[in-house]
Design a protein that fits this description.
The protein is an all-alpha fold and 221 residues long. It contains 10 helices and no strands. It folds into 2 domains: 54 residues, Orthogonal Bundle (Arc Repressor Mutant, subunit A); 166 residues, Tetracycline Repressor, domain 2. The N and C termini lie far apart (66 Å). The model has no long low-confidence stretch (mean pLDDT 90).
Length: 221
């Protein structure tokens, strides 16, 4: 086992390497992140060392979800700070790129809602919410130069659409059974990952365009 990290920057690197291992397990193992033992082995740290960073596998998953969200907001802010004007489809594209860049982005976005209600200490959940809210505020502030009417409420509506479509299509066992059996219905749902992402991107663009237009109309009254 490597020596225990002492300096803050070493601890941060160790924490990131643990999260990298957790993401690898999630993406490659059928039983996902099954235990802290599996994560300790995959990350190359002693189990006792692992518990210095995370008290449970649920805390690992929440931290991994937060990292995905931070990377997404970083993408948004970096793009919003550019001089080139943004359209609704540009913001939708950033969402799709974030999903494509991380195999845990949407699965953990859905899973962590339940984790915080049942398996995460309240103080940890509150701290997570406050940090994410701060990230949203920064992203909204950056986006307002391109979308004057955008706000936190609009961002939440987009996030709700993302989660809803993910759970309806990608996490619905009945839909997955129909796809596996090759059974078609009149309401054709996306089958492949590419089709789902295109459907999600189009849906987000439609929602954003409508919300921004309504906000502009309300402000003109």
């Amino acid at each position: 086992m490597p020596p225990r990290a002492i300096h803050p920057e070493d601890k941060l690197r160790k924490r990131e390497s643990i999260l990298d291992a957790a993401q690898y397990l999630w993406a490659t193992q059928t039983d996902r992140l099954s235990s802290m033992d599996a994560l300790a082995q995959a990350s190359g740290v002693a189990k006792g060392t692992l518990y210095l960073y995370f008290r449970s596998k649920e805390e690992v998953l929440l931290a991994l979800h937060e990292r995905d969200m931070e990377q997404f907001f970083r993408r948004v802010i970096e793009r919003a700070q550019q001089a080139e004007p943004m359209q609704a489809q540009d913001l939708s594209k950033l969402v799709i790129e974030s999903i494509q860049s991380s195999p845990t982005f949407m699965p953990l976005a859905s899973l962590c809602l339940g984790l915080m209600e049942r398996h995460i200490p309240v103080e940890l959940g509150v701290a997570f919410k406050l940090r994410i809210t701060e990230q949203i505020d920064k992203a909204v502030l950056a986006l307002q130069r391109h979308f004057p009417g955008i706000g936190c409420e609009m961002m939440m509506q987009c996030y709700a659409l993302m989660l809803g479509l993910w759970q309806l299509i990608k996490q619905n066992p009945v839909h997955q059974h129909l796809v596996a059996q090759g059974i078609e219905t009149n309401c054709k749902m996306p089958v492949t990952e590419e089709q789902f992402l295109q459907f999600l991107g189009n849906s987000l663009t439609t929602l954003l365009t409508g919300l921004l237009a309504q906000t502009h109309a309300d402000q003109s009254l």
